[in-house]
Automatic annotation (TrEMBL):
Pfam families: Fer4_16, QueG_DUF1730
Cofactor note: Binds 2 [4Fe-4S] clusters per monomer.
Source organism of the structure: Arenicella xantha
Domain (4Fe-4S ferredoxin-type) ranges: 195-224
Name of the protein this chain belongs to: Epoxyqueuosine reductase
List of residues binding tRNA: 239
Length: 376
């Protein structure tokens, strides 16, 4: 936490703190956030849920979910002096979000989760949150704060729920009745005793569309997601081989998965982003798998520069696309691409290429260019 050189803000009256909270929300909207809320730091209700989830091993290889202990569920243990959390939301849905689902039916296309098609949200939100902190500082003088955007042991969804920005749905994403779930979250931990907002209420009701639609049945029950089965985890967090029994279920999803958001009734209210940085990049949006698989590492780094995609690395990128090619209808171009890439592939990628080729053979489909040229 940025430590204050003095504690002048400690003398702020209740009236002044109320006025400051309103100003913070106004400044946040001026900076481009779509919603701003304030919560206290009591996350005890969520602590047991997290502990049980980790104890069951459902975090997979995400060791960071438990290695920080109670720092994740007790903000003042992570950042000493934290008294409140300012939670912010930025919508990222592109203009064609309602048509994006049709890409899943086109198995020759590489589907990338819509949040990752523009500039890396970590950078965008972090910069805006720092500006918000600066405005507060200009108003009241030095105070303690620290900025977070999915970058530390922070329970951002639980905090956002307490700040009134939405409720945690059965798919574990945050939902808002006015804008759905296509948005990013960020936090500003502060040592100011600001007034807090009312916790959002849950409006999922008896709906379980997200549970029913999940390709790998990763949502094992309401509000329970087994990350080890989740396509977002498999394509982004997992660094090794993707379990064989899950590969065919991944379809053409090469980075993340949006299925549970597509079917959520609340997303009919989704707001198109006003942030130019979140505009989808043409070279990433709904491109042919064969073309994406043909990228050199240099092309991968260039085309994903400044995006969240780059962090998975080139090897995982090829691994994911190999699976998608194995799930796609065979063409001369796809078979040729798989075989050509195999010659120089790492052992990890080679394993997934072999699986893809075997998929076509198991279905009695042609796997050579000669056979495919006569295949109807």
């Amino acid at each position: 936490m940025t430590s204050p050189t003095s504690n002048s803000h400690e003398s702020l009256s209740t009236e002044q703190l109320n006025a400051l909270a309103k100003q913070i929300k106004d400044w946040g909207l001026d900076l481009g956030f779509d919603a701003v809320g304030i919560s206290d730091t009591d996350l005890s209700e969520h602590e047991a849920h997290l502990e049980n989830w980790v104890a069951a091993g459902m975090h997979g290889e995400m060791d960071y979910m438990h290695k920080h202990g109670v720092k994740r569920t007790q903000p003042s243990k992570l950042v000493e002096g934290t008294r409140r959390v300012i939670s912010v939301r930025m919508d990222y849905a592109p203009a064609d979000i309602r048509n994006a689902e049709t890409m899943l039916a086109q198995d020759s296309i590489g589907y990338i989760s819509r949040y990752a098609l523009g500039r890396d949200y970590h950078k965008v939100l972090r910069a805006r949150l720092k500006k918000l902190a600066q405005r507060i500082q200009e108003k009241i003088g030095d105070f303690g704060y620290r900025v977070f955007t999915d970058s530390a042991p922070v329970m951002e969804k639980a905090i956002a729920e307490k700040a009134g920005l939405g409720w945690i749905g059965k798919h574990s994403n945050l939902l808002d009745s006015k804008t759905g779930s296509w948005f990013f979250l960020g936090e500003l931990y502060v040592d100011l005793p600001l007034p807090t907002d009312q916790t959002a209420t849950n409006h999922c009701g008896s709906c379980q569309r997200c549970i029913d639609v999940c390709p790998t049945q990763a949502i094992i029950g309401p509000y329970q997601v087994d990350a080890r089965l989740c396509i977002s985890y498999l394509t982004i967090e997992l660094k090794g081989a993707i379990p064989t029994e899950l590969r065919a279920k991944m379809g053409n999803r090469i980075y993340g998965c949006d299925d549970c958001q597509f079917v959520c009734p609340w997303n009919k209210f989704a707001q198109t982003t006003k942030e130019p940085d979140f505009t989808p990049r043409a070279e990433l949006t709904d491109q042919k798998l064969v073309d994406l698989f043909g990228w050199t590492e240099e092309q991968f780094l260039r085309n994903t520069e400044g995006t969240a995609i780059r962090r998975i690395g080139y090897e995982s990128w090829l691994r994911n696309i190999a699976i998608a090619l194995g799930n796609a209808s065979p063409t001369a171009a796809s078979i040729k691409a798989l075989k050509a890439r195999r010659e120089s592939a790492t052992e990890l990628v080679k394993e997934h290429i072999d699986w893809a080729l075997t998929q076509h053979q198991a279905a009695n489909l042609p796997t050579s260019a000669e056979e495919l040229s006569t295949h109807k």
